[in-house]
UniProtKB/TrEMBL annotation:
Keywords: Glycosidase, Hydrolase, Signal. Its EC number is 3.2.1.52. It catalyses: Hydrolysis of terminal non-reducing N-acetyl-D-hexosamine residues in N-acetyl-beta-D-hexosaminides. Coiled coil: none annotated. It comes from Dactylosporangium maewongense. This is beta-N-acetylhexosaminidase. The keyword Hydrolase applies. The keyword Endoplasmic reticulum does not apply. Belongs to the glycosyl hydrolase 20 family. The chain holds residues 166 to 710 of 813 of the full protein.
Length: 545
């Protein structure tokens, strides 16, 4: 056998025992270095405490305790570092993780008497927690208490991610996901070390984030109308013209308190929230809600006598635009970005910029240049879809998210403006594309047919954009567009298991990735996902067991 699960440096301590059938710890994503030792396993006991050593260890230690309590029924108290000889130790501080991997690296060592997690940061320790839970029997994922022997095999793991950005995008604009559903989606993804939650908050069909009236309001815009009017609209048709019948898009919106709760919950799970306000196209919902935006150059034009344009719940794209010539456009976008920045602790604000098909080139550039400058003025890093790559992006302070089209423009933005890149190429990361021909709904444009698990796994983000240094690639992101996807159960059905491919593409060194090996590990994940209630698609590409 081919040294499955081992790194080269481990071979010196590996004896020459005969071939064994497909040994697998089933770890997803595959860690950089795993040494499975032929020793007695660790067994969790009812009386075991978890020790949090270091100020930043409490959160990951509590997260671990929360995961283990649910199925074991053990109390698993989390203690301060006074009792450092305890069997489970979460040790966070400088130099505790693997050398040179301070941001997210971790060590995980298990022997018969002890589980040790060492990391420089809380996020590193959280990554170790997600690995450790996968080493327990699958019943650890049960939502009710199970009588089991809770063993963990003796291992030595040293691990860190290939890319800092391992994201997932949820389109809450076409069809809304209430906070509880977002949390369920976070839970399912966080276990695979997905660490960015990109919320597509606004589009033609709906506006999902509450904005208050500011003290200074030159155009007297009634900002709460955004959600009062356009929180009540959503998709009505699929883009292929199939009537959605009872599955109309879900309406709703996040209050500022809801959004804060999503940010908090994401943070507990190691995820940074990236809010997107899509401008200058994809803005019918804003034009429908706010009369002042309906100036002469805005698209579509409001009917004679009407204050705003009608709601449009179809899936057509590229028909709406803000007006580059109207001062109110810039006042509005600045106010929205300012309020969203104030409730977003993460460093990024996403301004969309995609598919502005009715916006003239000069108008598009004028608006995007202004909006990217507004984000920079708010002290944040702007992200936009790759259509905006040719704009005057803030120097060394912009991210291009590639989905389709011209890769040369992305390379130019990197090489002339110091931009970074997040990769969401449609054939490799778009989950509303069909993953199996039997799926009744789903796009086929990205792959000329099915975009199966293999397409999501077999690509290299490091070489995808020719002519840029790999260090310019922040990472990868799965994109869930919502034209025909309703509720978290369907979202999971389209995302899983392909999101696990993206998770591994973003985490594991290219040279250690292998599709057959991935499918083997994935085959044992189905039981865990089932116990968690994650509605994954049982693709025929995997021999589920
Ligand atoms: C293109 S990808 C869009 C979205 C659609 C998606 C799928 C991108 C930046 N824009 O508006 O939802 O295709 O139809």
């Amino acid at each position: 056998w081919a040294g499955y699960g081992y790194s080269i440096s481990d071979f010196e301590v590996w004896d020459s025992s005969p071939a064994a059938p497909a040994p697998t710890l089933g770890l997803l994503p595959r860690p950089v270095s795993v040494l499975e030792r032929a020793e007695a396993p660790y067994t969790l006991q009812r009386g075991t405490p978890i020790v949090a050593a270091g100020a930043n260890a409490a959160a990951p230690a509590n997260h671990l305790a929360g995961i283990l309590r649910r199925s074991t029924g053990y109390p698993l108290p989390v203690l301060g570092s006074a009792t450092a000889a305890a069997p489970i130790v979460v040790d966070v501080g400088p130099g505790k993780g693997p050398a040179g991997q301070a941001a997210e690296g971790y060590r995980l060592t298990v022997d018969a008497t002890r589980v040790y997690i060492g990391a420089d940061t809380a996020n590193g320790a959280l990554n170790a927690v997600q690995t450790l839970r996968q080493l327990f029997p699958q019943w650890v994922e049960s939502r009710t208490v199970v009588a089991a022997t809770w063993t963990v095999p003796a291992v030595t793991i040293a691990d860190h991610p290939r890319f800092a950005h391992r994201g997932m995008m949820l389109d809450v604009a076409r069809s809304f996901y209430p906070v509880a559903e977002v949390k369920a989606y976070i839970d399912a993804a966080a276990q695979y070390k997905i660490n960015r939650l990109h919320l597509h908050l606004t589009d033609d069909q709906g506006w999902r984030i509450a904005i208050d009236n500011p003290a200074s309001n030159p155009s007297a815009i009634n900002y709460p109308l955004l959600t009062q009017v356009s929180g009540a609209t959503a998709m009505t048709y699929s883009p292929t013209g199939q009537l959605m019948g009872t599955e109309l898009g879900v309406t709703g919106f996040y209050t500022k308190a809801d959004y804060a709760e999503i940010v908090r919950y994401a943070g507990v799970n190691g995820m940074t929230v990236i809010p997107e306000v899509d401008v200058p196209g994809h803005t019918n919902a804003a034009l429908h809600a706010i009369p002042q935006l309906n100036t002469a150059g805005a698209q579509p034009q409001r009917p004679a006598g009407a204050a705003t344009v009608p709601a449009n719940g179809t899936g057509s794209v590229g028909y709406s635009s803000l007006d580059a010539a109207a001062a109110v456009t810039y006042e509005f976008v600045r106010q929205v970005l300012t309020q969203i920045a104030a409730m977003t602790p993460g460093p990024y604000l996403h301004i969309g910029g995609d598919e502005a098909h009715v916006t003239g080139h000069a108008d598009y550039t004028a608006m995007v240049d202004a909006f990217t400058a507004q984000v920079a003025a708010l002290g944040r890093t702007v992200i936009g879809w790759n259509e905006y790559a040719g704009s005057a992006l803030p120097q060394n302070n912009a991210v291009v998210q590639y989905w389709n089209g011209d890769r040369t423009a992305v390379a130019n933005a990197v090489n002339t403006r110091g931009a970074k890149v997040v990769l969401s190429p449609a054939p490799h990361t778009y989950v509303p594309q069909k993953q199996d021909a039997r799926q009744p709904l789903g796009g086929t444009w990205a792959c000329g047919g099915v975009c199966g698990l293999d397409r999501h796994y077999n690509w290299d983000p490091g070489t995808f954009i020719p002519g840029i240094a790999q260090s310019s690639v922040l990472g990868v992101e799965s994109a869930l567009w919502g034209e025909f996807i309703r509720r978290v159960g369907q979202a999971q059905y389209y995302s899983f298991p392909r999101l696990l491919a993206t998770a591994e593409v973003g985490w594991t060194p290219q040279a250690q990735r292998d599709y057959a090996d991935f499918r083997l590990r994935l085959s044992v994940a189905g039981g865990r996902l089932t116990l968690q209630g994650v509605n994954f698609f049982p693709t025929a590409d995997v021999a589920w067991r």
